[in-house]
Structures are given as structure tokens and as C-alpha cells.
Amino acid sequence: MTNINPYVTGLRKEIPKPFLIDATNYSDLFPSILEEFRMSPICGFDIETEDSNRHEGLNRVMKIADPEEDSGNNKLVFDYRRTNICGFSVYGINSDKAYYFNLYHSDSHNRLTLKQVQPLLDIISDNSKILLAHNSPFELSHCRNCWGFEPKNLLCTMQLAVTCFGPDEYNLNSLSALDIRPNLIALQSEIVRKFSNVDSSREFTTEQSDLINKFCGKQSKAAHSYNGIIASIAYSYGLKQLVLRLFGHEMSSFKETLGSSVHMGQLTGEQVTDYGCEDAYWVMPLFLTLKTYLDHTNPALWETFLVQENPMTYVYSDTTVQGIKIDLEQVENYKNLERKNYAQALRKYKAILRPLITKEWLDSDLREDYLKLEKAWYEKSGLKTRHAIYTWVHSKDCEDDYTQCRQVNGSVSDSWVAERNDIKIKRLSITYYYTIRILLYDLFPKLKPIVGRARTVESDAEARGNLIERNPENKALASIINMMHELGSIEQRMKLYINPYVNLADPDTSKVYPVLSSRLASRRMAGSNPNFMQLDKISYVRGFFVPDDENSMIVSLDWSQVELVLIAELSQDPEFVRCYSQLPYEDLHKVAMSTCYFSTPEVFDVIKHLPEDLTEYENVKFVDNKGNQLTGPKFYKWARKEIGKVSNFNYWYSGALASVGERLNWSTDKMWEVTDAYRTKFHVAEAWREGVRNMVANQGYVTLIDNHRRVRLEATSNWYQVMLDKFGGNAGDPLNTFGNECLKRISRRSLNQAVNSVIQGGCAAITKRSILSMEQHLKTSKLRARFMQPIHDELLYNVHRDDVVEFIAEAKKIMLNHPDLVKNVLLDCTASIGLNFRAFNTKDNLIGQFELDEAPEAPWIPKELVDSKLTPEMIQVTIDNIFKSRGLDV
Questions:
Q1: Looking at residue 657, which CATH number applies to its domain?
Q2: If 0-12 CB within 10 Å is exposed, 13-18 middle and 19+ buried, where does residue 389 land?
Q3: Numbers of helices and strands, H then E, in the chain
Q4: Residue 265 in contact with residue 106, Cβ under 8 Å?
Q5: Residue 585 and residue 556 share a domain
Q6: Mapped to the 3 state alphabet, what secondary structure does 64-119 carry?
Q7: I need a labelling partner for 492 at 20 to 30 A (CA). Which of 12, 29, 509, 774 fits?
Q8: Could you tell me which of 74, 51, 71 has the C-alpha nearest to residue 63?
């Protein structure tokens, strides 16, 4: 179903001739051009831009590339407020000419004005026509900002490509013809050495598992990995790669066109004409090909594109153009605080390490047992890393925080160096996982390394917590691990939040201008510059975000357990349906807990009310996964969330309770015993899950509730045989043994990906349709509100304070009303409001996000209403008090 090539349609045998229209020929040619486009029902459109006057912060993060080629891999950061449109190109269907108009190129004497070309823009944006552009949110955002022009008839061919296929789809014939031997050269000698005489009755060694992961790792993009191999034949979403894949034509590249110039504005109109006209032309055959493909293979999906996917491109543009205001003073304060804390933590860390990082340790032999586990890097880099650690630990501390931080590399020091325009010096990265493993396993030779299910050594935060629990007497180890956590947390916050916001925020507006898209395999939305999906609910970073003005609030609307609700809808499992066919929901997490710890949910309920001096019940000790002793009520809360909730999400996406097992240090047998109990508890849902897996194995794809398809050829036997043939040899040959194991893992993963896609794709459809319905409602109502951003299943709106109560009521009606998608169970959602996006707290954030459906304690909330759903009247009281807390009059 992924072979699009038979549906390729051509417009002309020859590519149309490009024509430059500028001041030299405008008067002679423009009237006939207007007439030509009046007669063309479909037009291709493209703009060329430059933002050389971008604010300084963007220069520090700029990794610019051709915007039409933004397939999700490039780091595109445009200054949307300081961009100039250098020119635009248009093409009318079946014409032998394409036109490029010079508006802002270096040959300024030949430029045209917006007023001169406006008649043509009016014609091509007429609703009776179809206007095509690739990555249309880019065109829309700049046309709105630069020209005040917003065509309502724009179809995005990139979004149409996303509708047709996933980011990793390809033609199976292309895979059959592909020779992967050049890709495997880098691994071949290791494969032959490590996979000779493999004992099929034993587990793979750590070295063998490492090698397998190099090929089939989920995140790897290396040329020798499976992902790297598929990337070479995948259709992709960039216009130039799509044209090459489908039509065999290699378009001019952005870099080739730019040459030695820095940006498009430095080129003349003539130098850009061929490049610009190509883009305006090729969207036409691309559109017709993809439309024909859908007509023949999945006609219902065309309707989904028209009513859901393409309208969302306008929403993506809106969110970028309007931006999100942040409190730059707070960002700056936290940046300085984190830097100070980091410098202090480094001094403390060095003091802890000095007695342990001795000359004797430095000169000692590598640890033999660890060498067997991590031979590849430990043998090559172990001593080198030891020396770097020794040099750093015994270096002199500095009173100046900047100088102290510069002793190591990382997101704190690197950004500080860049800010001061100093020269970056390569030094020890103290939070790099190789450094961490040396400090854990190499420094403590008696410490037994934690080895994961994939036979790889683990050193992440959870593994470090397990090490403390297993070695309670080792106080030095605990001190080191605590410092690792502290330093890693600071670096993570700097990397994900503070550094991006410092650089991305426009100094004139105090706004960031995030770019939204929907190009994920699940069809979920994703964001960049900054990525709001990374926001941590408990992080102070949420306090950076503030409403548009002093009379507005941030309103957050969040579906409750929507992924599990969709499993109930799709599977009709009686336990799921029972929980999610009533409001408020029954507690499915509590039901799941009974499979892990207790015989029934009722028994589990008992511990909520046990005396605080009891430390266990029915042979279950009230201890969390870090070894902390808890009271019964606290254990109930921890176990419900960390075991019950994790089980409910972990199982359906992986088919096992491995994450729960690792948290509780279960043996493999114990983990599968509990997994079987969980499957039995939800046996109807399990039958549905297996049905999805069988479907993708038989036909290579599954259909989502909005008619999208998630193609996973990797689940089919045909794919398996095609790939196995590429490894050659007979059973027992090293390359064949290696390939067989890699392919089995990729195939198993694809089965789980299919289940994941059905659930996540359903969430995506509900989210997008809710946003679009709300957009329509806002246009016809008097509510003063705008959509800001999605954060997974959470929708953020900026709402005027006087409209909040009515807005929430209307938004909930829309979000919970999807009878075409959810018929047999009930959707539910919660709302919160605040003057920033950080959680409400009576101690330090009285203006933060206040939960309206489970009210927290607050000075204005009667005790009997705590943890309950507030009435509209009490919501208004809360609004008034939040504004009072900021010092404003009501």
C-alpha cells in the first residue's frame, strides 16, 4: 500500500520555462499574466525570504536550511518579525511558463512593489481556485506578517504527504533493490567475530547486544543502522526529496542557489528565478499524484485532509504569528541562579571526589569484569576518561562562577561561553554517560553493574537510584550519585528551557514564536523553537509563560486519561468500559494495582486509612522504588501512580510490564507472571491488542479512527524475507545469525508501534477536531480568546478575564463531543486557570494554574470544596482572587 509510483501523474513532458518579472518587463507582461491566472483553476505558489536582521539571540542558535525542506530534521529558526519576502513564484496548471516576481532582491532598481503585484495575489487567492504550497504554514506566516495577505484557499502539499504516508515509509520494491552491504561494512568484522558459534540456548552477551542495538536502535540515524538504511529510500516530506523519489528529478538546492552569498536578499532576481519557479511548478504534479494515490487507495482520507489536516495548517501559522509571551526577567533570574548553583555544585562534587580519585586509582588496571560488559568503549576510552576526571578533580577551584563552570563542558558552561563570545575549549563533560559509568563502576570495583533487558549497562537516574538501594552502606556512592542527579538536573533545565528561551525570545515583544507541525508517524502535533511538549508539570519553567496582557488569563484544558478511554472505545473490554462509561471515572489505576500487589482493589483501598505506624499490609512493605519507608496513605498514592498508572500505559504500548518490573527490581520470571495476570484481568482488551498486531502483520498497515494509516511493512513476513536475504549465508553463518536477531527485534517493535499508532492517532484526531471546532466557535461568538499551544493532551488558551467562565463551559462542550469517534464511552476533561503556567501554590505562586475540577486549598476556597469541582460562581470567585493576588483591582 506504500507504492505511490504507479499513481505518478505528469503535467507536461517538459518543465515549464521560468520567467523573471521585474521592473524591466512588468508593464508589458503583467496584463497577460493576470489573464492567464484568471483561467487557471489550480496554481502553485512559493516565496523566497531573508531575515538577516534577525535578533541576536537567533544568531546563536541558527542552523538555517531551505524552509521547503523542513522535514523535521533541520533546525529552522526564523525571525518572523524581521523577515523580508524577496520574491514569489507562481505556476498555473498546464502552462508552459512559471513566473518569479522580484520584490526585495539586490538589484533594487528592478524591484516591484506589493501594490504592483497585489492584483495577481487577489486572483490566485480567490476561493474558486486551489492554491498549492509546500509547508504552507511558512508561506502563510510570512505573507501575513510582511504583506497582510492570507489566502483562504491554500492547500499544503507537505501536509498532504503526511496524510498519505508516514515519515519512515518507502516502496518495498526500493527496499528489495537496495544493497545494504556498504552500510554494514563498518560492522561486518565485529559481526563475524562476535556471532561465530552462537549458542542458541543462551542469551546474547552484552557485546553481542550492543552490536545488535547499533543496527536496530530506535533512535539511531547512523548509516549502518536500519533507520539510516530506510532514510535512504523513504519518501520523506521535503519537496526536493519527494520530487526525486517520485519523479526522478533532482531540483536545485538552496545551497547551490545561494552560492557564496549569505542570504537570498543578496542575490539578484535573475539568480533566484530558476530556483523559485521550480518550487512553484513541482507542487503541482506532487499534489495531483498524491490526490490520485488517495483516490485509489483510501478515498475517505481525502475528506480527512480537507476538514482536519489542511485547516490545521492555518492554526499552526496562527500560533507562530501571535507568539507566546514570557517573563524575560524571570528567565534571566533563573539563568543566573542555575549558573551559580552549578558552580557551587561543581566545587562540592570535586570535594567529594578528591579522596577517591587518587593516583593509585588512576594507574590501576581496568576492571576485568566490567571490561567484558563494555569492552568497546571501556577498553578504548576508559583510561583517557580516568585521566580527564583526575585532572578536573585536582584542579584548583575558582571563586568566580564563570571560571569554575568553564572547567567542564556542558549546557551550562557552553552557553555561558557563547554568550561572552569566548573560545570553547574541549574539556570533560561531567554529566556524559561514559563519565558517569567510570565514576560508578570503574571507581567502585566491587559495585555490580546494573544490566538492562537489552544486556546493556544502565547508568540513568533510575539505575543510579537502584544502586543506592542495593548498596545502602556505601555513603560515598550515595553522595556521588546525589551530585550526579543535581548537576544533571541543572544541565537538563538549562538545555531544554533556559538557554532556548534566552535565545529565542524577541527582545522587543518578550515573545517566543513556536513552530507547530503534524509530521509524526502518530499524526500527533509537535513543536519547536521552543518545544512545548518538553514542559514538566512541576518545573519552575512553566512560570515563565504569561498571558498576552494584564486582563487575560492562561486557561488549560486537559483530557482525562484519553489514551485509556480510547482503548475502552476500541476494545470494548468490560473493565475498561465500566470505568470510562460513567462520570466521574472509576479508578482503572487502582484496578491495575490489584494485579501487581493486592488480590482486589478493595484490599488496596484499605491501606489509605491504615495508622501511620504500620509499615506493611498483607506481606506488602510500604517502601517505594528508592527504598524510602512510607506510611500507608503515602504508599497508596505512590503505588497507584507509579505502579498502577505506569502499568496501564506501559503494557498497551509494549506488551509487558518491564518498566514496573525494573522499578520494583522484579526478576524476569516475576515480571512475566504479573504481566500474565494483567492480561487476564483485561482479556478482552488484550484480544483487541492482538487483533491490531495480527492486522498489521497480515496487511502491513492499520487504519486509525480518522482514516489515516500507519504502515509498518516491518511487521510482515514478506519484509522479513526481503531483509534476511540481504544478510546472505545459511542459518548459523555469523551475518545471517546477526541479521535474523535484528530483524526479529525490528519486527516485534513494529507490532507494538501499530498498537501505539492506533491509540495515539485517535488522540491526535480528537485534539485537532476540538481545536478546529473551537476556532469556528470563537469566530462566531463574542468570546475574547485565542489558541496558544498544545502540550500532548492539554490545550492552552489565552482568554480575557471576563470571558473565562463562559469560555471553559463552551470549550468543554466541544472537547467532549466527538460522537463520530467516541461512541460507547465518555470523554472527560479538566480545566485550570492562572496568570502564569506554573502550578498554583499557596506558598509561592498564588497566581499559578488553579485546578477547577479538583480545587486545591486556597484562602478563598471553603474546606468542604477542597478536591471538588467548582461551580461557575466559585470559578468567578477564584478568577477575582487570582487577580487580587497579583495586586490588581477586580
A1: 1.10.150.20
A2: buried
A3: 37, 19
A4: yes
A5: no
A6: CCCHHHCCCCCCCCCCCCCCEEEEEEEEECCCCEEEEEECCCCCHHHCCCHHHHHH
A7: 509
A8: 74
Last residue of a domain, one of 459, 483, 504: 504
Whether residue 240 sits in one domain with residue 222 = no
What are the contacts of 643-647 at 24+ separation with CB within 8 A?
643/592, 643/593, 643/596, 643/597, 644/588, 644/589, 644/590, 644/591, 644/592, 644/593, 644/596, 645/589, 645/592, 647/589, 647/592, 647/593, 647/595, 647/596, 647/678
Residues 554 and 652 in one domain: no
Residue 291 grid cell:
490526490
Axis-axis angle for helices 588-596, 668-681 (nearest 10): 140
Return the number of other C-beta atoms located less than 10 Å from residue 27's C-beta: 9
Judge if 555 and 583 occupy the same domain. no
Specify the 3-state DSSP secondary structure of 181.
helix
* Residue 124 contacts residue 45 (beta carbons within 8 Å): yes
Instruction: Output the CA–CA distances (angstroms, integers) from residue 201 to 128, 192, 197, 435, 672, in the order listed.
Output: 68, 19, 12, 35, 19
* Cβ neighbourhood burial of 821 (10 Å; 0-12, 13-18, 19+): middle
> How far is it, in rounded angstroms, from Cα 536 to Cα 540?
9
CATH number at residue 802: 3.30.70
CA–CA dist 755, 566 (Å, integer) = 12
Q: How far apart are CA 720 and CA 747, in angstroms?
A: 8
pLDDT digits (tens, 9 = 90+) for 223-262: 999 999 999 999 999 999 999 999 999 999 998 999 999 9
Residue 658's nearest CA partner among 671, 648, 645, 669 is 671
In tens, the pLDDT along 206-218 reads 778 888 988 998 8
| Strand, coil or helix: 197 | coil
The alpha carbon of 2 is separated from its chain's Cα centroid by a whole number of angstroms, namely 25
Residue 461 has pLDDT above 90, yes or no: no
Cα–Cα distance, 757 to 704 (Å, whole number):
8
Specify whether 243 is located in the same domain as 288. Answer: yes
pLDDT in tens, 551-598: 999 999 999 999 999 999 999 999 999 999 999 999 999 888 877 776
Residue 129 and residue 95 in one domain: yes
Number of folded domains in the chain?
A: 5
| Residue 523 is assigned to a structural domain of this protein | no
183 assigned to some structural domain: yes
Together in a domain, 310 and 414:
no
Contacts of 616 (CB under 8 A, 6+ apart): 622
* DSSP result, 108-154: GGG---HHHHHHHHHHHT-TTSEEEETTHHHHHHHHHHHH----TTE
Domain that holds residue 261: 5-168+236-325
Side-chain-side CA neighbours of residue 447 (13 Å)? 29
The set of cell numbers assigned to 40 is 487557471
449 and 404, same domain (yes or no): yes
Q: Quick check: 608 and 625 in contact, CB under 8 A?
A: no
